[in-house]
Design a protein that fits this description.
Blueprint lengths: L7 H18 L40 H14 L7 E6 L2 H15 L4 E5 L4 H9 L4 E4 L9 H10 L5 E6 L11 H10 L5 E6 L4 H6 L16 E5 L11 E6 H4 L4 E3 L4 E3 L8 H39 L12 E5 L3 H6 L4 E2 L2 E5 L6 H13 L1
Parallel strand pairs: 2-3, 2-4, 4-5, 5-6
Antiparallel strand pairs: 1-7, 6-7, 8-9, 10-12, 11-12
Helix pairs in contact: 2-9, 3-4, 5-6, 9-11
Bound molecules: pyridoxal-5'-phosphate (PLP).
Length: 373
C-alpha cells in the first residue's frame, strides 16, 4: 500500500467520490447513461491495456485487448448494416476523434472537396475542419435542428464541380435532430455532386436508433449509405470513461494507413496509444445487454422523455421533443436552476436528456423546483 500517514490521499478520494455521486443524480443536461455497473471489470484496471496501432494488426506490444476491440467494432458496424469484409473501424477517445477521423478520410479522398455541415452540428466539426485546413460552408439548420436541404443544394451548386463532403448529424447536440441521409443523397444528385463523402456524427443517437430498427438510423451500405459513422461510448452505452467507435469503408482507409516497423503494426488511427479499457467497457455493455436489452433501455428513455414533456407542459412550459428523442427542449429557466441541474443552454433554449439511469423521480424533482421559480 502507498503510505498515507496523514490520510490526505484517502480523504481527497472520499471527497471526490462524494462530489461525483452528488453530481450524478442531477446530470440531466448532459448525455451520459448512469445505469451500468462495471465492477466485474475492476480487476483489469490495475494493468495497462494499450491497443496501440491498427486493431487488426496485433503488433509487438503484448498488453492489448485488440480481440475485444475488433468485437466492439464488428458489433457496432453490424448495427449500421456494415460487414467485416467491407468495413473497418477502431475504438476512439470519443466522437470528437471520430469526426476528425471521418473528415480526414474524406479530405484524403478529395483534397479539393468542400465540407458542408449544419449550424446545429457539434462544435468538434468546425474544429476538425480547422485542424485539417478544409474548405467548408456552413448550412443553416431548421428551428428544430435539422439540416436545411435546399440550402445545402444551393451551397453545393455554388461551389461548382468540387467534390462534396457532407457531415450529417444523427442526434444534434441541442435538439437531437437527425439529418436525413436520403434527402442529402437526393440533394447531392440534383446538384450534380457525384464525387462525395458522407460522414455521420451519430455520437448520441446512432446506437439507440439502430437497435430500435428506426428508418432514421444511419446505414453503412446502399445508395444512401454513409462512408463513415462515429458513436460515443460514454453516452448511450454508459462507459465510465470518454470513448467511442468509428467505422468506415475499408477501401477509403487504405489511403491513410502507414506501416510502422517500430510497432510492427499499422498507423491508421488518429492517436497512437489507445485505451484498451474503453474497448472492454463497451464490449461488456454491448454483450451484457445484447440488442434486446439495448432496445428496451432506449425505449425506457424515450418513455421518460415523453413523461418529461407532459410534466413540463402540465406546468405551462413550452416543452417539446422529436419523436425518437431522449432530449426534451424547454425555454431556459433561471440561472440558478441551469447551474444546479447542469442544463446545457443556447439561445434561450435548454435541454434535458433522459439517459438510461435517469428516473421519473429525478425529473419530477426538477419540475417541482422549476414550478417554485
Ligand atoms: C457528444 C457529441 C460529440 C462529441 O463527442 P465526444 O465523444 O464527447 O468527443 C460530437 N457530436 C455530437 C452530436 C455529440 O452529441
Amino acid at each position: 500500500m502507498t503510505a498515507d500517514p496523514d490520510g490526505w490521499l484517502t480523504s481527497t478520494l472520499a471527497r471526490v467520490a462524494l462530489r461525483v455521486q452528488e453530481g450524478r443524480v442531477r446530470s440531466i443536461g448532459y448525455p451520459g447513461a448512469i445505469d451500468q455497473d462495471f465492477t466485474p471489470l475492476l480487476p483489469l484496471f490495475n494493468v495497462l491495456l494499450n491497443n496501440v496501432g491498427d486493431p487488426e494488426v496485433a503488433g509487438l506490444e503484448p498488453r492489448h485487448v485488440k480481440d475485444v476491440e475488433r468485437d466492439v467494432v464488428r458489433t457496432v458496424a453490424s448495427l449500421f448494416g456494415g460487414t467485416h469484409a467491407e468495413h473497418w473501424g477502431y475504438v476512439t477517445s470519443g466522437s470528437t476523434e471520430g469526426n476528425l477521423f471521418g473528415l480526414q478520410l474524406a479530405r484524403t479522398r478529395y483534397s479539393d472537396g468542400v465540407l458542408y455541415y449544419s449550424d446545429a452540428a457539434h462544435y468538434s466539426v468546425a474544429k476538425a475542419a480547422r485542424l485539417l485546413g478544409m474548405r467548408h460552408a456552413l448550412v443553416p439548420a431548421t428551428t428544430t435542428g435539422e439540416m436545411h436541404y435546399d440550402a445545402l443544394g444551393e451551397a453545393v451548386a455554388s461551389h461548382g464541380r468540387r467534390p462534396a463532403i457532407v457531415l450529417a448529424t444523427a442526434g444534434t447536440t441541442m435538439t437531437e435532430a437527425i439529418d436525413d441521409l436520403g434527402l442529402i443523397a437526393k440533394t447531392l444528385d440534383q446538384a450534380g455532386a457525384s464525387e462525395r463523402h458522407v460522414h455521420v456524427d451519430a455520437a448520441l443517437s446512432g446506437i439507440p436508433l439502430a437497435v430500435a430498427g428506426s428508418l432514421a438510423a444511419p446505414r453503412l451500405r446502399g445508395d444512401t449509405g454513409a462512408d463513415s459513422i462515429c458513436v460515443s461510448g460514454h453516452k448511450f452505452l454508459g462507459a465510465p470513461m470518454p470513448c467511442g467507435v468509428v467505422v468506415a469503408r475499408r477501401i477509403h482507409v487504405a489511403g491513410i494507413a502507414r506501416g510502422v516497423s517500430y510497432l510492427d503494426s499499422v498507423d491508421s488511427t488518429i492517436t497512437g496509444s489507445r485505451n484498451g479499457h474503453a474497448a472492454l467497457a463497451m464490449w461488456y455493455v454491448l454483450h451484457r445487454l445484447g440488442i434486446d436489452g439495448l432496445r428496451r433501455r432506449a425505449a425506457a428513455s424515450r418513455a421518460l422523455a415523453l413523461h418529461t414533456v407532459q410534466r413540463l407542459t402540465d406546468h405551462g412550459y413550452d416543452a417539446w421533443r422529436h419523436e425518437h428523442a431522449f432530449t426534451v427542449v424547454l425555454p431556459t429557466p433561471s440561472e440558478r436552476l441551469v447551474r444546479r441541474w447542469a442544463l446545457a443552454s443556447a439561445e434561450g433554449r435548454s435541454h434535458i436528456i433522459c439517459m438510461p439511469g435517469i428516473t421519473a423521480d429525478h425529473i419530477d424533482a426538477f419540475v417541482a423546483e422549476l414550478a417554485q421559480g
